[in-house]
Design brief:
Helix content: 25-40%
Shape: globular
Radius of gyration: 18 Å
Strand content: 15-25%
Mean pLDDT: 95
Protein name: Glutamine amidotransferase
CATH topology of the largest domain: Rossmann fold
Keywords: Glutamine amidotransferase, Transferase
GO molecular function, one term: transferase activity
InterPro entries: ChyE-like, Class_I_gatase-like, GATASE
Number of helices: 11
Organism: Methylobacterium variabile
Low-confidence stretches: none
CATH architecture of the largest domain: 3-Layer(aba) Sandwich
Amino acid sequence: MLHLLVADGNDRAGREKHLSVCDKTSAETYAGVLRSLAPDAVCHLVAPADADAVLPRALTECDALVLTGSTLHVAEGGPTVTRQCDLVRSALAAGLPVFGSCWGVQVAATIAGGRADRNPRGPEYGLARAIRRTDAGEGHPLLSGRPPAWDAPAIHDDAVIAPPPGSTVLAGNDRLDVQAIEIRVGDGVFWGTQYHPELDLDEVAAMLRLSAEGVVEAGLCDDEAAVDAYADALRDLHRDGDGRPDLAWRLGITAEVLSPERRRREIRNFIDHLVRPRRAG
């Protein structure tokens, strides 16, 4: 049996905002995905941004840590950020495998000496397009099974602007150099993606509605009504993907995004190539 600690990157306000458009928190989404990929996994949820958070299971008794996305900004600092940085630092110091998407990557890069801040090339809303491996990413197990180029769910303004010394950037695209990365700190190994392999399209749609003002400001939609229309199309495609080739064609969404098995490759690879071997060892 695997014991996985799932840390929600949001503070209380962020979790409530997320719940206002989704029927679960970011941590609950991740826990569901992890259990679907590893039926023998027990997920222990924690919200480390909270001052009164208590780990439901000691790090030394866990097989891995997973950190979700967040509405917070690493560069702004403060206790809600520091507490999460401390948790990831402690997990890596304990030799745990750590996985994170979006916010998780930014936290890991920061504690290892990199820099996360607003992406000067602009945000990604909905999908990160045409992601490609770097030379260092060729053959790396995190990206095993990915085609030469792929799209993935993504919603972010911030990103890793300067990767930590000694880290390995595994993938990028024209909007961002660091779309996937490996970071080693002591005996601990972090694998992560700036994009969200855990998100279904209905959750992407919900998060776009929350970010409607930013989508319009970025010039990606004329107004919030257009954001809602795009979100509606994503929701409908999620509900009946096989029956709506017209929507997939219109939105430019391929099987790498539509298929849960393909979309979640990095999470499965993390479990199969880092977590299980460590557990067996």
